Amino acid sequence: MRRLLAFLALCAGFNAFTHAADPITLGLSYPRTGSYKEEGLSQMRGALLAIDELNAQGGVLGRSLRLSSLDDASRPKKAERNVDKLAKEGVSMLFGGASSAVAIAASKRAAEHRLLYFGTLTYSNDTTGKDGHRFMFRECNNAWMSAQVLGQYLNKQLPNKRYFYITSDYTWGHTTESSLRQTTNTQDTALHPSLKVPFPGASLASYQTALTQAAASDAQVLALVLFGEDLVRAMRIAKDLGLTERMQIVAPNLTQSIVEQAGPGLMEGVVGTEPWTWRVPELENSALGKAFVKAYSERYAMYPSSSAASAYSIVQQWADAAKRAGSLDSEALIKALEGHSYTLLKDRQQWRSFDHQNVQTVYAVKVKPRAEVLKDPLKQDYFEIVERLDGGNGLPDLATWQAERRNAGQPLALQ
């Protein structure tokens, strides 16, 4: 009997050890197809680099990490199904998305599974505003932060100009246009008109019609509140109509992938914002940021984009929180993340407690002339940083956040 008990205890110990040694799975729901697929590919690359680095350091809580990924095609319903599949697979957390509508829908579904969801490219104010909840953490900046730094630059360089807005018809487009109108004092829609184009699935005819109306206006600034391939298509039509020559083009959220798809010649002079570029570690004297740029460039033969940096940072920050909490439990991780301040790929950042928005520096950028871009060894030195906004300056405070939640009929604290 004693031998039997000893044998059973040995088996139980072996099973516990085997279970503890099982890899931890992270779930990435990202656009592998659709208008934002290039941003999605960058997320995948950044995430894999972070996972490999963490595994080389011994993993998290003694266990290695693995990635399980599914294509959301930038469609909210598909993203919700992805969350269900990944939760059933047993993932410990979820991240991804390049559309705010996707991030909002996927994060709410993740909350039903009691899983954390980290938004990568989700710039809508609503993500951590009226649609925010305890299980959502947004790594990138919001639309208001972009508008603040962009407004600072435009008001100095192009004061009192007339704007024409062409906007993606979903939450990111709406809150981005609204925020930029406030910071540039262009709220008068009679003086500064706007047209909406469908998302997803806008046709070339939609862009042609909208841009033809912009060409017929007396606007001096064309604000293209579009993203990914949608922005690229619109820029090609704008070029054909001569708008790139006679109007300042503003694209509130730029990425390296967008310039690559369109070509620096077409995008030359376009002004927008980025939360990170591969030049930022030099500007902010970030040793870890410089190491990331070096590792990513050697691995993929290209510079990392803000999309890649966001996914990399999310994996690293989740891992850091798990180590500090000594747990993979979502409630323990929320406590570890809320209010946590850190430096990683640039200067100091913080996960704000009351809304889970990442407080960070944001940059206004201008696409360099093609001749300058081509001087770089990898031909990817696209952006000149023309304005800088320190972390907390561009964010609404608690009272403003609560007022927005109250107006939307939402609780005044994250649930």
From TrEMBL:
State the UniProt keywords alphabetically: Amino-acid transport, Signal, Transport
Which family is it part of? Belongs to the leucine-binding protein family.
Signal peptide feature range: 1-20
> Which InterPro entries is this protein grouped with?
BCAA_transport, Leu-bd, Leu_Ile_Val-bd, Peripla_BP_I
Q: Where is the Leucine-binding protein domain?
A: 23-368
* Gene3D superfamilies in the record: 3.40.50.2300
Domain of life of the organism in this record?
Bacteria
> What is the name listed in the Swiss-Prot or TrEMBL entry for this protein?
ABC transporter substrate-binding protein
Task: Please give the SUPFAM superfamilies that the UniProt record associates with this protein.
Answer: Periplasmic binding protein-like I
Is the Cell membrane keyword given for this protein?
Answer: no
